[in-house]
Hints:
The complex is a heterodimer of chains A (298) and B (277).
Chain A: H1 2-14, H2 17-50, E1 54-55, E2 61-62, H3 68-73, H4 76-110, H5 115-127, H6 130-141, H7 146-153, H8 166-177, H9 179-191, H10 194-204, H11 207-218, H12 220-236, H13 239-244, H14 252-261, H15 266-297
Helix pairs in contact in A: 2-15, 4-8, 4-9, 4-12, 6-8, 9-12, 10-11, 12-15, 14-15
Chain B: H1 12-35, H2 52-58, H3 61-94, H4 98-112, H5 115-128, H6 135-158, H7 163-171, H8 176-205, H9 208-213, H10 221-230, H11 235-262, H12 268-272
Helix pairs in contact in B: 1-11, 2-11, 3-6, 3-8, 4-6, 6-8, 7-8, 8-11
Amino acid sequence: MAAEARAEARAEARTPRSAQRTWLWGALLALPTAWMVTFFVFAMAIVVLLSFGRTTNDGFPAFATSTANYRALWNDVYLELFVRSLLYALATVVIAVLIAYPVAYAIALHGGRYKNALIAAIVVPFFASYLIRMYAWKALLSDDGLVNSGLRKTGLSDGVTFLNTPWAVIGGLVYGFVVFMILPIYASLERLDVSLIEAGKDLYHGPVRTFFAVTLPATRAGLYGGVLLVFLPALGDFVSAQLLGGANTFMLGNLVQQQFNEGQNWPLGSALTVALMAALTVLMVVYLRATSTEAREA
Amino acid sequence: MARPRRVERKPALAVAVTVVFFAWLYLPILAVALFSLNDKKSLSRFSGFSLRWYDELVHNSALIDSLVASLEIASVATAGSLVLGTMLALGLERVTSRRGRVIGAVTLLPLVTPEIVTGVAALLLFTGVGLKLSMGTVILAEITFSIAYVTVIVRGRLAGVSREVEEAARDLGCTPFQAVRLVTLPTLVPALVGAGLLVFALVFDDFVLAFFTTGVDPQPLPVRVYSSIRFGVSPAINAIGTLMLLASALLIVAALVLPRLLGRGTSSLDLITGGRR
């Protein structure tokens, strides 16, 4: 009896199962989707709205429909800062590629059984406190830090001012984000069929020509991914410039942070944030277009 | 897996760069740890071993308050993002419609948005609706930022779980909810442990979001440390920095290793490096 009833119930359940299922999965999606829409999409919309806002006479931000904030962005100081941020982020990407490719190559193709351990040895410090790693550089490079005292002791120099220079800031950015270049390149080198390299050597003679004709093109996807993953956070960063640089090396992120914490001009800060996002989106779209066409042609 | 890897002889240049890279990666961190144990204030001459800077930390009540606040923020944010991220992963894995793909893309956006933008947006939202900035607002912002990590890791694991097992449970009389609870969720445990540890470490260390969304008191630990770093370097900061690095290193190592021990299959490391074959 009971078994029969169960079988019946099951047969009944079978027909609307797909409907039931969609209902369940849809319900699972509802809460997280509502969360992301509220705290991310809606929050972003407020930034865009406030970028057209103004500051009231008693200093509070208020919504409005003025383009004054965007017009205020168009001056030499901000433009210089914008260009500087782009240059720093680009330099960061270039240096990161020059470091990351050989490291990923050595580990992926010659790491042997230590491969995973070596990658873990890179990942662990990189996911540990970004702030403390920036501080570590500051301590090392400061005027009475280890590097300068070493230089003085060996008589090479009376001390070099490293901090407050562009290279200190760019170095900090590379130190902060190079792992995002190593990992995707490593992943694509891992997937690379080694017999391709061997065939390349027969065809092209010499490891250098083989590298440029075979290995590099085959790992293009990882390289492109890494460029994006380093460029995005580098352009928006303000910690490196704040701790390792000075007023002459400030980036967009510092300007945004100032408007919200010190300058207290939130509408202007919002306009800066929107400009940063717009620049990133345009660059990303152009970049993705270019790289995907190239990948198709290859 | 065991494919003969007869590649060319070791490329000297790549190996040299790798060695220098590892030195460059670890030298600053080790210097911080070394000089946290110095008995003098100098950050360049090690004169003797002492724990005085650690002793100073223990007696700094504002710092302890910040530590407790950060632990609370990380715990609540981890729990919240695990629940929401898992729901999202389960839903996205099965809803293959266009709507599902759009939702999937939106939830990944925080991963490619510079943190400063997310921070500004959260600040404006909270003040706009009249929420007082506090630990609660930091938690809300951190959950929003962490959901994507959980979703990515859990989806990676889900892809390896055959859906037939769930179908079988249904044929044996489970309701859809029971099938998920009794069959699918247990297979996700390793992924959830890994994701939880990773998110805890990321949130505990996160500075930018906390900086934009925190109230005055108690400040999360990274925010407090940042304000002291701005004024210069000191052995006391070295001490707290060493502890923070050690704590998150342990968490990350656990996040990489535990999922492997708990069950065969993908660990966070595999996901980070694009998976192993």
